[in-house]
């Protein structure tokens, strides 16, 4: 197999527990297409590769290498790493792109350690210069832009979810089966998987175009409903500060910031959030920030494009009715 | 059972963190250095298990500049039996590959049944070291655990992955990483702080571990450029005089955000 383009970029596809292509795939394939020919790798349970390949081709995969194995359901990480090692040996890619998700980081880390490939993590983009692939990072909560590159050889890159807005053009489905010899590396056993069924029609926090977040200023879990009301009026995802999570107003999955989810939406609305540096680190790259807080000295106002010093319980209902008025 | 807990000194996120624009390295003088909170939680998992089992030895391990020794000692004050500090100026700009190889060599030297790390440090937020270590040590990885049960021959737990919740288990030896869903760490008490002074504290160089930091035949990831983003300037700030909500709506409409 020597017919892979010299500028092949290997993209590891991730599937959800129900066999759907993970939402990160669109950004990964678009990123790969900016610097070369995206060759995707699908490691799936038996019978799922065709569907995944079709979804990936629609998002710009030039071809899809498929490995169908029952071991993905019982063994953690290793089946994917074995498949990735086989794919890399076949394709000889210039770079390997993996989602910076929990499983993606494990696959990328193991693969890099196994093959001695350099690894660059949490990238927000890639480009090319005369010497090859350059990886762009945003570090310390967006305070610095850093570029990195491999001294030689293909670089393994984990790409931050939601960091890439671009989308590649659909291509015809080309599916190739890849033969993999299991490495026999010791693996953890997957005992059970419970798929979380999305009951909300709201957008997912990661990658959302608009986010409305609430903080301790909401005062109680019941009153946190105000955040949901505004989110629904704006078609936004719901976020929260750590203080609101610690106070039990909302589950930890909604936490925005240093130790939670990093978001970069078009619009970020912070309600009753003081804006501790850990929170700002996770949202200050938002294009537009609106803040409402009682405390005129709250640090959130230092980064807000439009700040209102006032009571969220009078300002926000007025905002919601003004938005409703406009729709009429 | 020997549990090695990897701990990391990081710049305190409550202060302003800086990178040196000449070297690209963390400017350690710019902010207070603290033990990363996720490292403390990882230690707590190990110490809680040691509290309930007599034969459990907890080792705190870190690869960090010499100046981090005081921070690593906090692990001893919390209750770790010994500490291993890999301090070598040659490792100052180590990439993830060199870091993983060095830590793996130290872990192998110390011996282990279980390695516990945090899932992501607050400074680098890399999150790949646990899997890299598992590969190099030839043991299973069970990462991002939000609950952990350790038994004589195995470790198991829950991980929240994209679209679902997963139960995993692995035979020991193994490498696990934990998330901040696990409990806060204990505070070192006076007795612990005094006892820490007498506990074994080993300092190792790269050469002690058979690691050659400047081996250019090994592919590396290097920083090629660094730039500081201009701080975000504050925009309009008004005090609500009964029209705050309307003014926000106007701002959103003007900027085509609705």
TrEMBL record, chain A:
Keyword Electron transport set for record: yes
GO BP terms, alphabetized: fatty acid beta-oxidation using acyl-CoA dehydrogenase
Cell membrane keyword on record: no
Domain Electron transfer flavoprotein alpha/beta-subunit N-terminal: 9-193
UniProt GO molecular function: electron transfer activity; flavin adenine dinucleotide binding
Keywords: Electron transport, FAD, Flavoprotein, Transport
Sites where the protein binds FAD: 216, 241-242, 255-259, 272-279, 293
InterPro entries, per the entry: DHS-like_NAD/FAD-binding_dom, ETF_a/b_N, ETF_a/FixB, ETF_asu_C, ETF_asu_C_CS, Rossmann-like_a/b/a_fold
UniProt cofactor(s): FAD
Function: The electron transfer flavoprotein serves as a specific electron acceptor for other dehydrogenases. It transfers the electrons to the main respiratory chain via ETF-ubiquinone oxidoreductase (ETF dehydrogenase).
Similarity comment: Belongs to the ETF alpha-subunit/FixB family.
Protein name: Electron transfer flavoprotein subunit alpha/FixB family protein
Species this chain originates from: Agromyces mariniharenae
From TrEMBL, chain B:
Xref: PANTHER family: ELECTRON TRANSFER FLAVOPROTEIN BETA-SUBUNIT, ELECTRON TRANSFER FLAVOPROTEIN SUBUNIT BETA
Recorded GO CC terms: cytosol
Xref: SUPFAM superfamilies: Adenine nucleotide alpha hydrolases-like (SSF52402)
Pfam family, one: ETF
Subunit description: Heterodimer of an alpha and a beta subunit.
Protein role: The electron transfer flavoprotein serves as a specific electron acceptor for other dehydrogenases. It transfers the electrons to the main respiratory chain via ETF-ubiquinone oxidoreductase (ETF dehydrogenase).
Protein name: Electron transfer flavoprotein subunit beta
Cofactor list: FAD
Species name: Agromyces mariniharenae
Keyword tags: Electron transport, Transport
Chain ranges of the Electron transfer flavoprotein alpha/beta-subunit N-terminal domain: 23-213
GO molecular function, one term: electron transfer activity
Similarity annotation: Belongs to the ETF beta-subunit/FixA family.
Record-linked Gene3D superfamilies: HUPs
Top-rank lineage group of the source organism: Bacteria
């Amino acid at each position: 197999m020597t017919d892979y383009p010299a500028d092949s970029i290997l993209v590891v596809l991730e599937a959800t527990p129900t066999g759907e292509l993970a939402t990160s795939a669109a950004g990964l394939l678009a990123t790969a297409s900016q610097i070369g020919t995206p060759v995707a790798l699908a490691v799936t349970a038996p019978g799922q590769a065709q569907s995944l390949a079709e979804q990936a081709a629609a998002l710009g995969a030039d071809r899809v290498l498929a490995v169908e194995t029952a071991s993905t359901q019982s063994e953690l990480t290793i089946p994917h790493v074995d498949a990735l090692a086989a794919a890399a040996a076949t394709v000889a890619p210039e770079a390997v792109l993996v989602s910076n998700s929990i499983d993606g980081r494990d696959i990328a880390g193991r693969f890099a350690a196994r093959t001695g490939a350099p690894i660059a993590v949490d990238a927000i983009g890639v480009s090319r210069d005369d010497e090859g692939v350059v990886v762009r990072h945003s570090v310390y909560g967006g305070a610095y832009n850093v570029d990195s590159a491999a001294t030689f050889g293909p670089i393994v890159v984990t790409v931050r979810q939601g960091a890439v807005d671009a989308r590649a053009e659909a291509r015809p489905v080309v599916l190739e089966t890849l033969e993999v010899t299991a490495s026999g590396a010791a693996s953890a056993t997957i005992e059970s998987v419970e798929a979380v069924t999305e009951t909300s029609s709201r957008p997912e926090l990661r990658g959302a175009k608009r986010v409305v977040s609430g903080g301790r200023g909401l005062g109680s879990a019941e009153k946190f409903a105000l955040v949901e009301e505004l989110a629904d009026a704006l078609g936004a995802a719901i976020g929260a500060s750590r203080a609101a999570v610690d106070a039990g107003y909302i589950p930890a999955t909604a936490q925005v910031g240093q130790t939670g989810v990093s978001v970069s939406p078009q619009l970020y609305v912070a309600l009753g959030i003081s804006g501790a540096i850990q929170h700002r680190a996770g949202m200050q790259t938002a294009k537009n920030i609106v803040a409402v807080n009682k405390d005129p000295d709250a640090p959130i106002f230092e980064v807000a494009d439009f700040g209102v010093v006032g009571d969220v319980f009078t300002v926000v209902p007025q905002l919601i009715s003004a938005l409703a008025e406009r729709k009429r | 059972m020997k549990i090695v807990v990897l701990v990391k000194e990081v710049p305190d996120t409550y202060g302003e963190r800086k990178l040196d624009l000449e070297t690209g390295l963390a400017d350690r003088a710019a902010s207070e250095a603290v033990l990363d909170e996720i490292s403390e939680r990882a230690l707590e998992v190990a110490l809680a298990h040691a509290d309930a089992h007599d034969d459990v030895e907890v080792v705190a391990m870190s690869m960090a500049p010499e100046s981090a020794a005081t921070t690593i000692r906090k692990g001893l004050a919390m209750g770790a039996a010994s500490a291993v500090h890999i301090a070598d100026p040659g490792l100052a700009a180590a990439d993830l590959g060199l870091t993983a190889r060095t830590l793996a060599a130290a872990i192998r030297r110390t011996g282990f049944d279980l390695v516990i790390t945090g899932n992501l440090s607050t400074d680098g937020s890399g999150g790949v070291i646990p899997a890299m270590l598992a590969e190099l040590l030839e043991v299973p990885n069970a990462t991002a655990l939000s609950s952990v049960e350790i038994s004589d021959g195995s470790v198991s737990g829950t991980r929240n992955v994209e679209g679902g919740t997963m139960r995993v288990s692995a035979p020991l030896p193994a490498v696990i990483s934990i998330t901040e869903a696990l409990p806060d760490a204990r505070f070192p008490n006076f007795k612990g702080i005094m006892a820490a002074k007498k506990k074994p504290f080993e300092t190792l160089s790269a050469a002690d571990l058979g690691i050659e930091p400047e081996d250019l035949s090994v592919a590396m990831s290097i920083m090629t450029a660094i730039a500081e983003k201009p701080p975000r300037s504050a925009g309009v700030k008004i005090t609500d005089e009964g029209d705050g909500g309307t003014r926000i709506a106007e701002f959103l409409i003007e900027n085509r955000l609705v």
